[in-house]
Amino acid sequence: MRRLLAATAAALSAAALIAFPGHATAAPSPLPDFDFSACPAPPANADPGTWRCEAFVSQGVLTIGDREIPLGEMRLTFSEGKVAGKYAQVFGELRHAPARIHGAFGASLQLKYGGYSDFQSNDERRGELDLYAALRHPLLPKECAVGTLADPLHSVVKDDPAVPFEVISQNPTTVKFGVVDSRLALPRTTGCGRLAPVADQLLGLPSPSGKNTFKQVTYVQFKPL
């Protein structure tokens, strides 16, 4: 997230230059509640004073072909800083309540962490995250999912121009931005038993890269560790 922090600093400096007394400003965006309880502690050999936790609160939408699935709220935490002068990060937690899939007879989808993340953004992308989607329904086995922990979906998100970067608060530092993954590939379901063909047909799976989009509007708040 070093690019994000640099952009934040630049935006705050610009805001300080133009925020004269009496100057009208737009109403601030509504803020979610941020939860830092799942922030991972810095490694034992962390460089002192360099670590912070980032708490994400996102609203997501997954589009599979022509089917749009509102995902609702997703929460994610991770910590970042330096070890021996080099950038390092530690993943905390991904939380997502099951989201109802409209037109799927009461089935829902719940995103789970797939075991890999990289939030050090660069000129090519904002970050990367492995995940899988558990499918919930009384008739489906509990193992029914799109992707698995052993073979997860790999999402690479880029900045979404429709939701530009915005500084919401200077103290504590809070920002808002949008990201999109338009190259996400979705395989057939696994672990769904005899209902696998039905689940695949309802969701339009498999769906190759280029046919799907994963969009998020994200608020991030930073907390020094």
From TrEMBL:
Keyword annotations: Signal
Secretion signal span: 1-26
Protein name (Swiss-Prot/TrEMBL): Secreted protein
